[in-house]
Write a structure and sequence with these properties.
The protein has one helix and ten strands, in the order βββαβββββββ. It has 144 residues and is mainly β. The chain has a domain of 98 residues: Umud Fragment, subunit A. The longest helix is centred in the N-terminal third of the chain and has 4 residues.
Length: 144
Amino acid sequence: MSEIKLIKGEFKEKLDLLFAPGVKAGFPSPAGDYLHESLDFNRDLIKHPEATFYGRVDGDSMIEAGICDGDIAVIDRSLEPQNGNVVVAYINNEFTIKYLDLTHKKDGYIELRPANNKYKPIRIDESDTFEVWGVVVWTIKCWR
């Protein structure tokens, strides 16, 4: 099961952004040494700074979605959760990160679906304490 530990953060510095039509996965471009502009996470990635939080993923239940243990999830609390979104949910006094499945809502329940076959979906009905805490809009991972 994947849990998430919430983090509040601020980016105070801009990072240099490589000027290129896109970052290629093949051979390096000779123009690769030129910088064009800066990347400002608050401007470029965070649409609602006052409602955005970070969470460190703990576990492997979302590994098939590319969300791994130790990754940082960028969570926007101002977004309306939609069916199929990756969300941070607060269920029965615990946070978890899963896909939101609303297809059974008319049957009186919803599900939180993992992205790892080792885990079963979590069925949520009116007897559960439940809140979609926020929608995951980005993930940040360390490759080293």
